């Protein structure tokens, strides 16, 4: 039996700017594996490729500048549904910029075949 993965690892990083956003308000609600949302911020004055990271409706930070260009481009082109972003690490004792690690997977495209 052949196993086909439904997603592939794309990127892992810490959530940047965690200490400047509302992450501390929801830190205790996050768990390893919690779903995160990625939102493109094309009007961000500090980073032309800004990608905000949300836990539920709470903005907890950003993808780091050195890791966001490809994700920003795909989001800008409307491919937001291909990403599966999750909390990978939580460390309340770490520096705030290193308290939340995340992993981003790219989901396999659904193949639609027509039967003759």
What report would you give on this structure?
With 116 residues, the chain is mainly β. Helices cover 10% and strands 34% of the residues. A six-stranded antiparallel β-sheet has the order 1-6-5-2-3-4. Strand 3 (51-55) and strand 4 form a beta hairpin. The longest helix has 8 residues, at 69-76. It starts with 6 loop residues before the first strand and ends in a 9-residue tail after the last strand. 25% of the residues are buried. Residues 112-116 have low confidence and may be disordered.
Short description:
This protein is mainly β and 116 residues long. It has helices at residues 23-26, 69-76; strands spanning 7-14, 35-40, 51-55, 58-62, 83-90, 100-107. Helices cover 10% and strands 34% of the residues.
Tags for this model:
34% strand; mainly beta; 116 residues; disordered C terminus; 10% helix
Helix-strand blueprint:
Blueprint: E1 7-14, H1 23-26, E2 35-40, E3 51-55, E4 58-62, H2 69-76, E5 83-90, E6 100-107
Antiparallel strand pairs: 1-6, 2-3, 2-5, 3-4, 5-6
Strand content: 25-35%
The percentage helix is 10-25%
| Terminal residue distance | 26 Å
What's the story with the biggest beta sheet? 6 strands, antiparallel
Q: What shape does the CA trace take?
A: globular
From the alpha carbons, calculate the radius of gyration and give it in angstroms.
16 Å
In N-to-C order, the SSE pattern is: EHEEEHEE
Give the strand order of the largest sheet, numbering strands 1, 2, ... along the chain.
Answer: 1-6-5-2-3-4
Low-confidence region ranges:
112-116
Average of pLDDT: 90
Count of DSSP strands: 6
**Count of DSSP H/I helices:** 2
Assembly level: single chain
The structural class is: mainly beta
């Amino acid at each position: 039996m052949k196993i086909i993965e439904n997603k592939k690892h794309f990127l892992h990083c810490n959530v940047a700017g965690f200490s400047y956003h509302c992450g501390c308000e929801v830190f205790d609600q996050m768990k390893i594996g919690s779903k995160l949302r990625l939102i493109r911020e094309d009007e961000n004055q500090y980073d032309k490729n800004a990608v905000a990271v949300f836990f539920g409706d709470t903005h907890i930070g950003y993808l780091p500048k050195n890791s966001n260009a490809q994700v920003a481009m795909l989001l800008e082109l409307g491919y937001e549904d291909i990403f599966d972003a999750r909390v990978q690490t939580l460390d309340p004792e770490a520096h705030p910029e290193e308290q939340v690690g995340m992993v981003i997977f790219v989901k396999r495209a659904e193949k639609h075949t027509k039967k003759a």
